[in-house]
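not sure who needs this but someone in the group chat was asking about histidine kinase from Allobranchiibius huperziae so here u go. i didnt clean anything up, its just raw.
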Amino acid sequence: MRLRPRTLTSRLALLLATLALLAGTIAGVAATFGIRAFLMDQLDNELHQASARNITLKSPYGDSDHDRDNRGGDPASNAGLPPGTITGQVSNGAITELVVAADLDGDHLPTAADRAAVQKVVSASDPRTVRLPSLGDYRVLTSRTPDGAQLVTGVPQGRVDHTIRELIVLETVVLAVVVLLVAGVGAFAVRRSMRPLQHLATVARRVTQLPLESGQSRIDVRAEELREPTEVAQVGRAMNAMLGHVDLALAQRDESEQRLRDFAADASHELRTPLAVARSHAELLREYTASTQLPEQVHRSLQRITDETGRMASIVNDLLLLARLDREVTERREDVDLTWILLQAVDDARVTARDHHWGLTMPEEPVLVRGDEEQLRRLVGNLVANVRMHTGEGTVATCVLERNGDRVILRVHDTGPGFPPELLDQAHLRFARARHRQESIESTGLGLAIVQAVARSHDGSLEITSVPGDTTVTVILPVSPQE
């Protein structure tokens, strides 16, 4: 499996190190070849000087008494040549003599393999590199004396090769140090230049943690302004402009929602008394006309007026409750036993919805929640009523109450048709109802909205999962601190 750097900082540092390695390698190779060429030129100069000296020493027409004294009358003498220099004579294309100028022990005769190696280049007129099996690499040059004799002169190439090897080792060490320094310094520089981006990421994470879905939400987080003409500074300014725009939009949304809530609360409050009066008069008329011979249509109309005014009064009360919950107004805070409330709600459902099969699972000991008892009764009642109103005959409904650590979990499960897919994510919104059920089911669409509002006012939450035949509504509340 290939390991790839995960962060941009490590990638850029690796890129810098790679570029440094590539540039250093190219420079090192070029320098090595250049220095080797220079050293080989020097070696060739030494070779030409040694060849000229060899011609002088081997020529029977020495140009000075000093040369003749050095030769001592021996045509094979290598006096005056650098140590390690090889000299030889060629006769009819074959080497007849090949000796080495030694440091201490005098001249040494090369082996037959050495002669064979030199034999291959005697016809060349320019310096050639020859590897002698017993002596190593030599730079060899063939030349002629004034009397026409052909001589071979060679100088050892080991010094050049040794220098190049040391140079390569030195370049490798220096290149490794440079690459490590470039990687370290590059990582530091890149990390430092990336700090503004890290700050932007921190700002973005803080924004995602803000409760923007609730009312009175504000985005008071801003990125640090950089007065630089860099791309990072431009991103920071663009992010601040975007956050400011979103903050303004949220403020306008909150203001609009608040006006709507105020209107609903004021309208509901103003409608309570007229509705109560209208319902009272309708009931009074029903009592007076109960024994009167009036058309059946009149009796049905009076009954309809009574029912609808009652339904409107229920909607008004629900809207007033939601308005109080929106303002986070909780009437009372006390320890409330949810087991007793749930038991009563299920018992009532078994009477009012006999065509359903009701199940109840809860602990024997009380489960206490700190909150408003009336609101919690409304929460449990709405959950049970939701099953009763939106499921058909024979539906199995199971209510489960349990404690999990510092949380109380209330689940209401049913085997009904479930929520329509388009409604599932909006079921907790006000007046949320499936279109194909509005005429057949008398529902205000406020039941689960009240459940969620009550749960939130008690620091809890609402969760809904639903597929046909398997629907679960879960309310999670904190346990009372007294437990």
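also Residues 148 and 315 are 130 Å apart (CA to CA). if thats useful
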